[in-house]
Amino acid sequence: MLTIGAFAKACRLSPKALRLYDELELLRPARVDPETGYRYYAVEQLEQARLVAWLRRLGMPLARIRQVCALDGPAAGREIRAYWARVEAETAHRRDLAAFLVDHLTGTSSQKDTAMWELRYAALSDTGLVRPANQDTAYAGARVLAVADGFGSAGAHASTAAVEALKVLDRETFPAGSVLNLLDDAVRGATRAVREAAAADKEAGTTLTAMLWTGSQLALVHIGDSRAYLLRDGELFRITHDHTLVQSMVDEGRLTVEEAAAHPQRPLLLKSLSGDGAAPSPDLRLQDALPGDRYLLCSDGLSRVLTDPDIERTLASVPDPEEATRTLVAGANDAGGPDNVSCVVADVVEAGHFRNL
Ligand code: MG
Question: How far is the CA of 158 from the centre of ligand 1 (A)?
Answer without folding.
Answer: 13
